[in-house]
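Repro:
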Amino acid sequence: MDAPERGALMLVRFVAAAIIGWSLVEFSLYWIESQHYNTPMKIFPCAMKSIPALLGIVGLIKSKAIAQWVSDKLDE
């Protein structure tokens, strides 16, 4: 694996991990807010806040393929 491919792989993994972290922070803030105001957590906001985490997990699973695609696009 060449240096540009390793750099693209590191970039893809970092972005995927950042998206997962961002989603976890959003979900935890929603949970804290619902506990503070004593309101029940609704399903739709929870589902919407978990979509980026799922995309980040998929990004981590498919990171090599995405990194190869990014590296090929940058080479063009």
